Amino acid sequence: MEQDYDAQTIENKWQSRWNESRIFEPEPDEREKYFITIPYPYLNGNLHAGHTRTFTIGDVIARHKRMLGYNVLYPMGFHVTGTPIVGLAELIANQDPQTMDVYSRLHGIPDDILVTLDEPEKIVDYFSVEAEKAMRSIGYSIDWRRKFTTTDDTYKKFIEWQFNLLHDKGLIVKGAHPVKWCPNDNNPVEDHDILHGEEATIVDFTLIKFQYDGMILPCATLRPETIFGVTNLWVNPEIEHAKIKVSKDGREEIWLVSQEAYYKLTFTDRTVEFIENVPGKDLVGIKVKNPLSGNEVITLPASFVKPGNGSGIVMSVPAHAPYDYLALKDLYDSDLSEYGITENLRDIELISLIKAKEFGEYPAVEAVEQLGVKDQKDPKAEEATKMVYRREFHGGVLKENTGKYAGVAVSKIKDILTRDLLEEGIGEVFYEFSEPVVCRCGTKCVVNMVKGQWFLNYSNPEWKDKVYRCIENMEIIPEEIRVEFNNKVDWLKDKACARKKGLGTLLPFDTNWLIESLGDSTIYMSYYITNKFFAHEDISVDQLKPSLFDYVLLGKGSVQQTAIDTGIPETLIADIKSDFDYWYPVDLRSSGKDLVPNHLLFFLFHHVAIFEEDKWPRALAVNGFVSLEGQKMSKSKGPILTLKEAVDTYGADVSRMYILSSAEQTQDADWKNIGVESARKQVERFYKLAKEIIDSGATSGIDGNLNLIDRWMLSRLQQCIRETNNDMTSIRTRSALQNAFFLLYNDVKWYQRRGGSAVLYDVLDTWVRLMAPFTPHICEEIWTEMGHGDGDFVSNAAYPIFCPGHIDNDAELAEELMCSTLSDIEEIIKVTKITPKMVALYTAPQWKINAFKMALEMKNNDELNPGKLIKTLMSDPENRKFGKEIPKYVQKLVPDISSMKTERFEMMLGMTLDEMNILKENIGCLTNELGCPIQVYSADEPEYDPEKKSRFAAPLRPAIYLE
Q1: What confidence tens digit (pLDDT) does each residue in 408-466 have?
Q2: What distance in Å separates the CA atoms of residue 848 and residue 854, rounded to the nearest whole number?
Q3: Residue closest to 959 by CA, chosen among 939, 929, 940
């Protein structure tokens, strides 16, 4: 081995050898298969540290399964459909300063190349090459024969087939539905198209029509039942409003709304005509009529009303809304004469309409007082609002003053009341985002009621039932995410599946539309299998007829008829189908948690709609995000650490080790330079230690005469093997690395410190295989240097499997005795500041050993209690002379043993340690560590015990005297 660890040289060497040997290009054989996929990356920039986490987790699982003997397929493609790449090309073509800076400085694209990426196709070509280079550079075990982009002509044929099939099943429908819409692109937007507000949902508000002088002041609310408690409306006098004519279903009305609301209404299923501007101050101080109760209420000034929220006019329910109560209180002593308001606002009576057991008459007032909220700007006002809403929603019922709705639960009233308001013409439904949404082009999005739009009918209850069944029967990692998946299915509504602009496949039954970017990314895992043939066999695009996909993917028709339809030889069609039947279904789909509410959900919906149950996905795994030094990464704005930059700076194995050990499962990781530098030192330590062992000429000693310390090392190794495999099964990479590297490294160093050497070669042989999925390049290097053949890759070696025969509890307990004794002595020296001339150790007296073993046996028989243990001990005449000490010892012993974890208890139960002999055998080690003589005595007959320390001795805890 080279003297120093050279990441670049080692990694380039082994990546080259993997490519030459094609060891990651599997073919069907007699082994059990394992098909793992991760979301293909979207190519509007270079891959970054966020991709590194998801992709590396996938690669580690693939490598682990491969070494366990599975035939593993780990493919990759590239996602390019939709509008982001089109938008990026336009920004580059226009030399947008921010875009040019981010892509030059952060993505590392040379200026002379960047200016040429002014067309979507050029961007796809450039980033597909760069993405593959980056993934190869970090050592992913991907079968690159299967790669594709989502604009390939062959892929489009596959998507056309899929959407025709869904259309034929009645799962794609045409209608008018609210969608997220970019007015600039004139297109619906999905999560991939969104710059801000990816988590936003479309919420249906109820518009309640308050009346004034033949006009309507509509107020949007999520709680229409509170109309019974309205005391006033809030109007912002500083904003310009609009008087508009609104027509729907043959009804014409004049509305007064904010300018922003007027703009949003133009995207609804109403005909909207602007009449004139109206200053907000002209709408303050007027009396409007509550359409349900007929009561007149006043409009009051409120600067907190935002014109972009709802209609820009807000109804006030101070009995049940803390903010309304606080705002009304704040106006009590204000001079409002400029608005023509001369009434004493203290005369406004609060109206209570909901009975909740946690509150009295006025919940908002009580919540404000209980939390000590000072005014509207107090942060605790939000807490008060949530408290009132939560308690009223889950336990509240409407009071008698709500008429026929009295006694109805708050949780059930919304749909009932909204329906009635719509029927009476005094309410309408108005769709709004749960938070602002901005398209990647920079335009603020709106909710558009699109007519003649194509939708995936995800609200179909029969379709949802199938998805529920799929979720119930599959493995989900971590398990707690299962509830989230079911909740997302509950709430999922019809989703627009077509757009007018961007890259993609034309909707086959309506070529005026393009299939949107998440719709064409649902069952592409099956395409990986077929694309190996499409990309490398003499098959033309025109030959990819629907009957080919029907036969290969669904088993419909016959090979003979398919050959006639397509002109593809029967033998080749049979090979494609044989491959598909071998590899499908997906055994594991591993992804980031941001894709749970969209891509992963659609992945399940489309699989259950198209395939029979035996082809449904078997498992899903979800991991968290990655930030950069505490900041969220963004391809288009920065900050960003590209995968290439990470590998160039730190090396592939260091980058892999760091990102895998930085967080667990759905926890978010934060890429910090200080952390990755620490990982680099760990990898260098591993290399140095392996070199020392190899250079020493060590050979296998596992079949020779082994000392207690050798048996301890082999036992510890088995514990690490067991825990690592358990962690990998649950995809806990952080914990797996903790066991496979950090804990094992500490054990090996302790083994050497204790003079152990006989099994160092055997440990390293196992250790390298244990670490190979995590840091494959350095492991290949060490593996070869250990004498394994040049073509004998560690990537294909057998992964270590737990062997119970090598577990030696006595050896582990003996070493634990040594470690804890040494640690206790060092702690006493530290506290007392004594430099000992001699250390005396006293092992436990026989009566304590007997009590300890008896307590273990009683616990094993579920009979352990202090009274019984004391009685049993005292029944032995030999123990009676310790009658005063036994109860004290038992009172401490019983809780200690009762609280033992199962594994620890089982270890203790079979213990046959002779502590005296163990300590005497290791006097040399203790003497070297402490620099003074060591004496060992039994507490039963201590030859030297000037301070009576022996009385403190207990099993596995010798008493200590420092002289």
Answers
A1: 999 999 989 999 999 999 999 999 998 999 987 889 999 998 888 899 999 999 999 99
A2: 10
A3: 939
